[in-house]
Amino acid sequence: LHFPPLPIPQIPQEGGESSLSQLLKAFVSAGRVDHVTMVMGLHPQYLSSFWKTQYLLLRMDGPLPYHKRHYIAIMAAARHRCSYLVGLHMGEFLQVGGNPAWLQGLHCAPQKLRNLNEINKLLAHRPWLVTKEHIEALLKPGEDSWSLAELVQALVLLTHYHSLASFVFGCGIKPEEDQDGGNSCWPPSPNSDSSAASDDSIGGSGGADVMQEVEVLMEKMKLLQENQLEEEGVTQEEMATRFELEKMESFLVPS
User: Fold this and answer.
1) Catalytic hit among 82, 108, 171, 185
2) Contact criterion met (CB below 8 Å) for 127 and 134
3) Which of 46, 54, 103, 141 is 20 to 30 A (C-alpha) from 37?
4) What pLDDT digit, counting tens, does each position of 49-108 carry?
5) In a domain, 35, yes or no
6) Is 12 left (phi over 0), alpha (psi -120 to 50) or beta?
7) Do residue 73 and residue 170 come from a single domain?
8) Is the Cβ–Cβ distance between 15 and 22 less than 8 Å?
9) CA distances from 55 to 30, 84, 115, 153, 166 (A)
10) Is 248 inside any structural domain?
């Protein structure tokens, strides 16, 4: 049997030129081409949109001072323990005049920024639990209250960097050569000394805290389910029947 040779796929020249153009723009803008930009450079149109978003959030005029924007980015990345983004924005934070003492932990930052901690946790891990009460509490008149414009920009920054942290982990992006933090941005082992962190830590919360939160949540769900079944008077046999029915229906759902 004779098989014709397989054609070798060619990368379109337009895409190559566009990628180079985007990388040059990144270098001119930031003075470097970081690893995130290099990965996104494989998709020039996406990189272009990403850079426009980054520029608008961090560089353009807005209600938040530049150093607070970078600190909020640090808070968001730290929730996912993404040392790559934390390290990048610690440098940016200092370059735009941020107070180095704030980097020692959230307890060293102004109360106004500390008030974002709760909604930061919810947006990072359980965004469906955010309610209007969380927003109202931050907008409540007072010395450390947020204006609506400030809060909108802060929330956009938080959600943007939660997503970007997932991108960094998903693509296996490692720290820059001149970044502290070793050769990997993966979270430290729960058994290592460096993993013992609290909500106050810029590096993010510890794995034990996350596991404890999950266990508490599961216990609450179990109690809620048991109370609901008791109110409905459902027997063990009926529960087993419901389970089998749900299992059969799940098989019928197309993937």
Assistant:
1) 82
2) no
3) 103
4) 888 888 899 989 999 999 999 999 999 999 999 999 999 999 999 999 999 999 999 999
5) yes
6) beta
7) yes
8) no
9) 10, 19, 26, 13, 20
10) no
